[in-house]
Amino acid sequence: MSEHRQGGPEDSGAVERAGHVEQGKYAIDNPGLPPHRPRLADEDPRAAKRAERQVSVLFVLSILGTLTFFIGYFVVGQIGPGTPFSTIRLQNTLLGLGTAFSMLGIGVGIVHWAKTLMPDHEWVEERHEVRTEEDRQIAEGMINDILDESQIKRRPLLRNTLIGAIALAPLPAVAIFRDLDNTDNRSDLAEENFGVERLRHTIWDEGVRLVRDPSGTPIKASDVAIGNAMHVIPESLLGRTHDKLNQKAKSVVLLMRLNPESLQISEGREDWNVDGIVAYSKICTHVGCPVALYEQHTHHLLCPCHQSTFDLTQECKVIFGPASHALPQLPITVDEEGFLVAQSDFHEPVGPVYWERDPNR
Q1: What confidence score (pLDDT) does residue 1 get?
Q2: Fewer CB within 10 Å: N-end or C-end of the chain?
Q3: For the segment 211-237, what is each residue's pLDDT rounded down to a tens digit?
Q4: Neighbours of 281 (CB within 10 A)
Q5: Residues 334, 284: one domain?
Q6: Which residue ranges does the record annotate as region Disordered (predicted)?
Q7: How far apart are CA 347 and CA 329, in angstroms?
Q8: Do 209 and 161 fall within a single domain?
Q9: Is 292 exposed, middle or buried (0-12, 13-18, 19+ CB in 10 A)?
């Protein structure tokens, strides 16, 4: 028997291999680009104008959707206990429809614009050697081509309605996030707002004991050994019924004990620790994640969200990561019974930096 069977598919030519070249031809010829089929708007100016008006109507619909959202949000009013169900249903309907049409109008409008007015020719671009000056010229040419193909210069109605829709569309989200703070109209909170004042003050105060979270056990200085780390809350939080979770979110503290000789204490903070026992806010100064990882050997505190790292020996100075400033320190001392207590509230706002807060504070 011969080593290669005669008459098989390999010999008969019934099987063609991709990429096989025979007499200068590939097994599968390149079919090339299909012939371009002009659209109605390409040949009829009236159809192009009609498409332009349709796209503009969609952008205007987006603008009306945003305005509808604000009507439901501001005109209908705040929802609270005792609000009639009909009012709640009306507001929810306006908020939902407004958001939907705001996003839908922009999305559908841009798709319709691309399908009916922007050029739809296909072409093959050969690779070329990239040079610095040529690259700049090519990039500039591409930008000009995009502007020309989108016809945004030639059709100011499209441009202006699109700018209006895009400018208004993010505003509902801004309003929603600004209203995450649920400050009520009680007199003791009326002067506070979502700005820096809401995070400047916590329920820590002079003489408030530090207790373990969640057991509520008071802590004596003698109970904290070098290397220990405890999650701490103010004792006044235990009996609180109103706004308890919000206050806890601002007041949580990490308590640790180091060798006093390893602490680098700045002027004015000499009495903020008790024989090496220090307390710092648990809220990361980047975006507010809980700082809960303590490396005993390096004396570093780590935020698990974005790896911001704080050096406990340098008053929780940022040594790595995106956080912009140190964790606020809670001044502590001991009372007559030897329990750890706060000397005062934090001397700076807790939490992350935002547009209304000085990042250097």
Answers
A1: 47
A2: N
A3: 999 899 999 999 999 989 999 999 999
A4: 25
A5: yes
A6: 1-47
A7: 8
A8: no
A9: middle
* Domain presence at residue 149: yes
Three-state secondary structure call for residue 281:
strand
76 and 209, same domain (yes or no): no
φ, ψ of residue 342 to 5 degrees: the values are: -80, 145
> Is there a single domain that holds both residue 68 and residue 152?
yes
Do 157 and 222 fall into the same domain? no
Q: Specify whether 210 is located in the same domain as 112.
A: no
Q: What is the pLDDT of residues 159-179, one digit of tens each?
A: 888 888 888 888 877 776 666
Task: Report the amino acid identity of residue 270.
Answer: E
Residue 6 domain-assigned? Answer: no
Residue 147 within any structural domain of the chain: yes
Mean pLDDT of 115-130: 75
Whether 1 is in a domain gets the answer no
- Does the pLDDT of residue 275 top 80, yes or no? yes
- Specify the pTM: 0.52
Average pLDDT score over residue span 240-263: 90
Q: Which of 281, 285, 327 minimizes the C-alpha distance to 306? A: 285
Q: Token pair 């996030």 is at which residue? A: 177
pLDDT in tens, 254-263: 999 999 999 9
Instruction: Quote the tokens at residue 71.
Output: 């009507």
The 3-state DSSP class for residue 60 equals: helix
